[in-house]
Amino acid sequence: VLFPDVDVLDPTNTPITIEAWVLPDTASGTVFHHGGPQQGLAIDIRDKKAGFHIRSSTELTSITSSEALTEGWHHLVGSLAADNKMSLYLDGRLVAEGTSKGLVGGRPKNPMYLGNGQGVAEGTAGPYNGLLDQFVVYHKALTLEEVQRRFEAPDEKPEGAVLYCNFDNGDSRDSSGNDAHGVGAAVETGKGKVGAALWFKGNNAGGAKSGSFVKHTWDRYVPIVARSMALAGKTVLVSGPPDTIDEEYAFERLAAKDPAILKELDEQNEALEGHRGAKMWAVNVETGEQSSGLELTSPPVWDGITIAQGRVIVATVDGRVQCFGK
Questions:
Q1: What b/e sequence results for 32-62 when a residue is b if at least 16 CB atoms lie within 10 Å of its CB, and e otherwise?
Q2: If DSSP codes are grouped into helix, strand and coil, which group holds residue 8?
Q3: Rounded to a whole number, what is the distance in angstroms from the first to the last CA of the chain?
Q4: Residue among 34, 87, 85 at smallest CA distance from 64
Q5: What is the pLDDT of residue 215?
Q6: Which DSSP symbol is given to 184?
Q7: Angle CA(116)–CA(160)–CA(290) in degrees, nearest 5?
Q8: Residue 115: is it exposed, middle or buried by C-beta count within 10 angstroms (0-12/13-18/19+)?
């Protein structure tokens, strides 16, 4: 799973904490990786022991858990504090600590990945095989007490996260509010620690057949109800009103006769009626990477985007025609 190289995920000169629940199928694998041999950080598992790695201006510091992983789900947290102290936690307990040569000293050249990556640590743990859930990035160092609370209440939304993926919708959408959505390729979903989880099956795993000869190379969550799309070269423009509600969650709340869900449904209806504006995203057709988006005052009409002579022309439901470009 690849995450975009955006400012909100830049770890330069900031304390940082990485959190995830893992249920590995193999003894070794790379859980999280961001960067390379110049700058970056990573969490991996080698011979059933978790490791946390920091590259600060080419200088590598690695710490390894004193305890091996047993069967079942495990909570992993790697934290780098402002004073360069590194801490690795397993299931709410401190299992390794050390001192980095410094904070991550520059923007990593390689993007953030889940399930693979190499260059930060010495050698490689290889790709991760297994389930991964409740992935969080913070630009702060969590205390032991905060880590223990996260371990004891994995279903609670983390506070102060710059990236948060619960994978309950079968994709790597960011629920922190920063829209740093991940792009997955050949990753399935399974039963998670909470709700659903990503299921990394590896290159040789015999995954279920889709029944289709068409194989997609990436998938991307876009937080809108897509109403219009247009292709220009290697970029596809997607636009529509905001998608404000999880349909499965809404059905569950309706079945439970929860009156609070009615307000959320009303808000989604207002968005669909064009009263909450819209957004237009540019997505690279080869990689799935997307732009930060362009705000529109009203959603486009159905199939209402046209591209001509370097300009994007959008017809919106409020009766306007807007032109963007040179």
A1: bbbbbebbbbbbbbbeebbbbbbbbeeeebb
A2: helix
A3: 35
A4: 87
A5: 52
A6: E
A7: 50
A8: buried
pLDDT attached to residue 214? 44
pTM above 0.85, yes or no: no
Amino acid at 74: H
| Runs of H (alpha helix) within the chain | 144-152, 247-255, 260-272
Domains and CATH numbers, the chain: 7-200 (2.60.120.200), 220-325 (no CATH)
State how far the alpha carbon of 121 is from the alpha carbons of 111, 135, 254, 255, in Å: 15, 20, 48, 49
Question: Are the C-beta atoms of residues 119 and 107 closer than 8 Å to each other?
Answer: no
pLDDT digits (tens, 9 = 90+) for 106-130: 999 899 999 999 899 998 999 999 9
**Which tokens in the block code for residue 80?**
């780098």
CA dihedral 167, 121, 41, 76 (to 10 degrees): 50
The answer to whether the beta carbons of residues 205 and 190 sit under 8 Å apart is: no
Contact 285, 234 (CB under 8 A): yes
| Strand order across the beta sheet in which 321-325 lies | 300-308, 311-316, 321-325
The pLDDT score that the predictor gives to residue 212 is 40
Bridge partners (DSSP) of residue 228 are 239
Residues 10 and 177: their CA atoms lie apart, in Å, by 16
Tokens standing for residue 74: 């495990």
- Angle of helix 247-255 relative to helix 260-272, nearest 10 degrees? 140
Cα 263 from Cα 254, distance rounded (Å): 12
